[in-house]
Amino acid sequence: MRKKLFIIVPFTCFVLSLQAQRKPDAEPAVPRVAKTGDQSHTVRLALDSSVTTSNTVTIKGQRVPYTVTAGSLPVWDESGKPLAGVFYTYYERSDVKDLSTRPLVISFNGGPGTSSVWMEIGYTGPRMLKIDDEGYPIQPYGLRDNQHSILDVADIVFVDPVNTGFSRPADKDVPPATFFGVNADIKYLAGWINTFVSRNKRWASPKFLIGESYGTTRVSGLALELQNAQWMYLNGVILVSPTDLGIYRDGPVDAALSLPYFAATAWYHKKLPADLQGKDLTAVLPEVETFTVNELIPALAKGGSLPDADKNAIAAKMARYSGLSQQFILQNNLEIATNAFWKELLRDKGYTVGRLDSRYLGIDRKDAGVAPDYNAELSHWLHAFTPAINIYLRDELRYKTDLKYYMFGPVSPWDRSNDRTGENLRQAMAMNPYLHVFVQSGYYDGACDYFNAKYNMWQIDAAGKLKDRLTWEGYRSGHMMYLRKEDLATANQHLRDFILKAIPGDKPAKY
After folding, report:
1. Whole-angstrom distance, CA of residue 230 vs CA of residue 271
2. Helix/strand/coil (H/E/C) assignment for every residue in 216-241
3. Please, which residues have CB within 8 angstroms of residue 225's CB and are 6 or more apart in sequence?
4. Which of 12, 52, 421 has the alpha carbon at shortest distance from 247?
5. At what angle do helices 421-431 and 450-460 cross, to 10 degrees?
6. Crossing angle for the helix pair 214-229 and 182-199, nearest 10 degrees?
């Protein structure tokens, strides 16, 4: 039996850069830091390490050769001391000679506290997990080629912020506040991006950020931070299932904006009246959106002064659009919390609906109650993604470490104060005429719902001067719209089109 190889080094920066072809009999590279003895086994991240393999994928009928580098790059403080190692996987098309015209997409997921696993092997990367056509887990676990990957038109680096994936602080004495907060996160990752771009000679390349969920908060802030602190200007920012981006909403607005999502979910589960149920989803939603803005928000603003007759009329319309009973809506004073909706919609059938994707069903201990026991969709996703990413990084890419891969890592407490990321994005767009923004939303996402995403765009561009550089698309799935086979193809094509459109050629950056 072949013995495993351990590399034992002090816990400081160390460089391991190996180029290896993917062959069954190749000796794996081992970026592992281990210390054993006296019953102890301490495993730490090699702060500066990488292993590179080669592969090919067929995308839209075209053979695309590429290299993929799995590794870690340090984050440094002002004095040059390493603060953390940030793990990444970098996909570079290997038959491109001129990188100055080759787009680079820098990809983040959210949480905060989750790694880039979701979009890497679920959406844009050249390898993806095995799931069924609607996104449900299947066994045996494993991966397959992603024929819809955007690697044909852009190189991609997937980044795991500190305490996600394999990324870790350099030592226990580094203050958590260095990493765990809206603005701390943006600051250190901007510096890390500078290091990555410099090492990989990508300063001339058109650059794009893509973030999902909390990752949209991150990339919206990074757009301005990269300009102001790193002097790096972007061509595009892609927001997948965006958060509120620090854009204030409260009271009637906050209470009302979820109704179009309720309508989409009720339509999917066939809980709407026959005349609405007989229409296509995209024919139903504009009616609900108009009611929400023109009638529901003003009614909620009146509070207790709203006449009973008007209150009953509003409740009747809400019942028509949400699949809930008029009585239930009146009992909640016209303000339906999302938790209550997930519990109530299918209560009579003994099911709850998922938070991040309301196509998924859950079963609670009791049908009674005001909120589901668990997030039905997340259990399915962790079921599918966790084995696949461990198989991929450890076996296919041969990044060897005994570190646990954090699907969700310890990042609490997270400082959410002074979140102005929506305004940061607006400023970045105003200062950079090249910068375009593309928003993708799933109609069945109850955590970062599609109508709140539209509201973000209205508030970011209140003057209406940026609308030719703001684009939105909706999909018939949830938070991770790409898990549905049909949406995987469509959403990636939308990304491809956006990236190519946002490259100006020889057009100067001016108004």
Report:
1. 51
2. HHHHHHHHHHHHHHCCCCCCEEEEEC
3. 186, 187, 190, 424
4. 421
5. 50
6. 60
pLDDT, tens digit (0-9, with 9 covering 90-100), for 454-494: 999 999 999 999 999 999 999 999 999 999 999 999 999 99
Structure tokens at 424: 């940061």
Nearest to 56, CA basis, from 132, 141, 149, 159: 149
Q: Percentage of the chain surpassing pLDDT 90?
A: 88
pLDDT digits (tens, 9 = 90+) for 70-120: 999 999 999 999 999 999 999 999 999 999 999 999 999 999 999 999 999
Q: How many CB atoms lie within 10 A of CB 469?
A: 17
Quick check: 445 and 479 in contact, CB under 8 A? yes
Based on its alpha-carbon atoms, the radius of gyration of the chain, rounded to whole angstroms, reads 24
> Do 224 and 425 contact (CB within 8 A), yes or no?
yes
Using alpha carbons, list the distances in angstroms from residue 295 to 41, 165, 263: 63, 46, 16
Domain boundaries, the chain: 17-246+383-501, 251-374
Integer Cα distance of 451 and 260 in angstroms = 7
* Structure token digits, residue 150: 């955007």
pLDDT of 23 over the 70 cut: no
Residue keyed to tokens 């593309």:
438
The two counts, helices (H) then strands (E), for the chain are 15, 17
Task: Say if domain 17-246+383-501 classifies as CATH 3.30.70.890.
Answer: no
Question: Residue 42: which pLDDT band, with cuts at 50, 70 and 90?
Answer: low
Closest by alpha carbon to 465, among 419, 417, 511, 406? Answer: 511
List the beta bridge partners of residue 40: 37
What are the b/e assignments for 244-264, b being 16+ CB within 10 Å? bbbbeeeebbebbbbbbbbbb
Helix 308-322 / helix 281-291 crossing angle, nearest 10 deg: 160
Q: Which residues pair with 55 in a beta bridge?
A: 66
Specify the pairing of strand 236-240 against strand 207-212: parallel
Residue 82, both tokens: 């390493």
Span 133-168, pLDDT tens digits: 998 989 999 999 999 999 999 999 999 999 999 999
Q: What are phi and psi of 267, to 5 degrees?
A: -60, -45
Kindly report the pTM of this predicted structure. Answer: 0.91
For the stretch 317-347, pLDDT in tens is 999 999 999 999 999 999 999 999 999 999 9
d(CA 344, CA 35): 53
3-class SS of residue 88 = strand
Tokens of 101: 């015209």
- CA-wise closest residue to 225 among 179, 278, 280, 184: 184
Residues 6 or more apart whose Cβ sits within 8 Å of residue 201? 99
The pLDDT of 355-360, averaged and rounded, is 96
* Residue type, position 363, single letter: I
